[in-house]
Design a protein that fits this description.
The complex is a heterodimer of chains A (151) and B (146). Chain A is built from five helices and six strands. With 151 residues, chain A is α+β, with helices and mostly antiparallel strands. Chain A has one domain: Nuclear Transport Factor 2, Chain: A, CATH 3.10.450.50. Chain A is globular, with a radius of gyration of 15 Å. Chain B has 146 residues and is mostly beta strands. Chain B has one domain: Beta Barrel (Lipocalin), CATH 2.40.128. Helices cover 10% and strands 49% of the residues of chain B. Chain B has two helices and eight strands, in the order αβββαβββββ. Chain B starts with a helix and ends with a strand. The chains are: A alpha+beta (151), B mainly beta (146). At the A-B interface, helix 3 and helix 5 of A face strand 6 and strand 7 of B.
């Protein structure tokens, strides 16, 4: 049974080339969360393998040549690991080269990922998804507002 | 170019569909429900992409250089055109188009990087981004080899 460190290393090694395979590492009710995405109005929490696969497919489409690098597990217990990792990749949307750095906390349960909570650089993200970077971001719109828009 | 992806890409592809998939919202079709286009990869590394929205208005003057501002706007906003070179990364399963000439000058010399999904005579190329309000948008182009 894999511990938290092994799961974090395996998750980052795949680089989402197969979103389905990466999502299968999560528990059935596992969660992938990037809380700071809320600040940009992007849905920050994805629960269950189907939702996680869908989000990872988006990441794969955004950064087709992404490979995680410099993966360092800085703290760990058998069921939790805290890691730092990053990538340099070209955005399919803007053509810009993006340098992203993550801090990820992984909680393991029965050899699967119960929770992976990541923080990331939102300025770099905005350079990847918006033609004019943060200038294109409309302030005051939260994912809660998006949910209302979508309903 | 060598490798299985490059070998499959080489040839002429016709556009089957072009949709913007928006998280939690209805898909939209930037070039209408029946867009038309060709994507041509030569074995020696050149690419040409021409896509259009059918049904754009004719120029009243019938003069290539004599359209009105509105006519040029409609013609240009319903058309994607560029030619240049391409590179394939077999391990990462990606293709990068690098336009040398383009309708929109911003594209010239830039990199159009796409994940490649091949299935027989079908090719799917996607780009991902977001609206200013944070709605995740994936643009999906489906092609068929002819």
């Amino acid at each position: 049974m894999k511990n938290a460190r092994q799961l974090l290393e395996d998750f980052t090694a795949g680089s989402f080339r197969s979103p389905r395979q990466a999502a299968a590492m999560f528990a059935e009710d596992g969660v992938l969360e990037m809380p700071y995405l809320e600040s940009m109005g992007i849905v920050p929490r994805h629960e269950g393998r189907a939702a996680i696969e869908s989000f990872l497919s988006f990441v794969r489409d955004l950064y087709p040549d992404m490979d995680f690098a410099d993966v360092k597990v800085v703290m760990e217990t058998p069921d939790q690991a805290l890691g730092e990792y990053g990538f340099t990749a070209v955005s399919s949307k803007t053509g810009r080269t993006i340098h992203q750095l993550f801090f990820g906390r992984l909680m393991a349960e029965n050899g699967e990922i119960k929770l992976l909570r990541e923080s990331l650089n939102l300025v770099e993200l905005s350079m990847a998804i918006y033609g004019n970077g943060l200038a294109d971001f409309k302030t005051g719109v939260s994912s809660a507002t998006n949910k209302e828009m979508n309903s | 170019m060598n490798g299985p992806i490059a070998a499959q890409l080489a040839g002429v592809w016709t556009l089957v569909s072009y949709a913007d998939e928006r998280e939690g919202l209805e898909d939209t079709y930037p070039f209408g429900p029946e867009p038309q286009g060709f994507l041509i990869y030569t074995p020696d590394g050149f690419v040409s992409a021409q896509l259009m929205k059918p049904g754009r208005s004719l120029f009243q003057s019938h003069d290539w250089h004599g359209g009105t501002a509105d006519e040029y706007r409609e013609a240009g906003s319903g058309y994607i055109a560029y030619c240049g070179v391409y590179e394939v990364d077999e391990r990462k399963e990606t293709v990068t188009h690098i336009p040398s000439v383009a309708l929109v000058p911003n594209l010239i010399g830039g990199k159009q990087l796409r994940a490649v999904t091949l299935n027989g005579d079908k090719l799917t190329l996607r780009t991902a981004g977001a609206s200013g309000a944070g709605v995740v948008v994936t643009s999906v182009m489906n092609w068929r080899k002819i």
